[in-house]
Write a structure and sequence with these properties.
Strand content: 5-15%
Largest sheet: 3 strands, antiparallel
Structural class: mainly alpha
Strand order of the largest sheet: 2-1-3
Helix content: 40-55%
Number of helices: 4
């Protein structure tokens, strides 16, 4: 049976490919000849044992457009024993400017901060008008209470999401509890607002 750890030290290769060459890489019949398409080939020392290796750091750059990078581990030098291996890895990437955000999330923190600021202004105006109405009419209609609950729920969700993005900016992981809670509250706010619109449409 295969051992649960690497019995002897070995050196494997970490190969980095660009999406533009990936089709050619997959069409190459000789697996070890695929390295000629790699943008980088780096040696990684592993074993003996099952401990984590030292970090291997490097940089990749491409200024034409956003790309998909493929990372491949190979053992073309046959330094590993001849049995099936399962390797665990941890990958941490940053943008050239040090940002943890992917290109799809570029500007997301600023957009959320601006939205949150606008929401605070809206909440201030809404509360001010509601209190003025309650003072003049002597009561607040249930529809306004329902709308207020939906707005407060969405506001809390937005605060939680912004906090998550702030944490994500520094560690690339964020606060999972804030992220999950914000998603739940966002959905709850949508349910409240949708239910209110349906009730109004039905002639409440």
């Amino acid at each position: 049976s295969a051992p649960k750890s690497i019995p002897e030290a070995a050196v494997i290769q970490l190969e980095v490919y660009l999406d533009e060459q990936w089709a050619e890489v997959e069409s190459e019949p000789v697996i070890c000849d695929r390295q000629r398409y790699a943008k980088q080939v780096r040696n990684i020392s592993i074993g003996p044992g099952a401990n984590w290796t030292d970090w291997s750091t490097g940089t990749l750059s491409q200024s034409v457009r956003p790309h998909i990078w493929y990372f491949v581990v190979s053992d073309c030098r046959h330094t590993l024993a001849n049995f099936t291996h399962r390797l665990k890895f941890e990958f941490h990437a940053r943008q050239a400017n040090g940002s943890e955000f992917s290109v799809e999330m570029k500007g997301m923190l600023l957009a959320n901060a601006l939205f949150l600021g606008s929401f605070i202004v809206l909440m201030h105006w809404f509360i001010k008008r509601t209190l003025a109405f309650a003072k003049s009419a002597g009561y607040v209609h249930p529809v306004i209470w329902t709308l207020a609950s939906g707005m407060i729920t969405q506001f809390i969700a937005q605060v939680m999401h912004t906090i998550h993005l702030l944490a994500y900016k520094y560690d690339g992981d964020g606060l999972k509890a804030c992220e999950v809670l914000s998603e739940i509250l966002f959905m709850l706010a949508q349910v409240i607002q949708t239910s209110l619109l349906i009730l109004i449409a039905l002639g409440y």
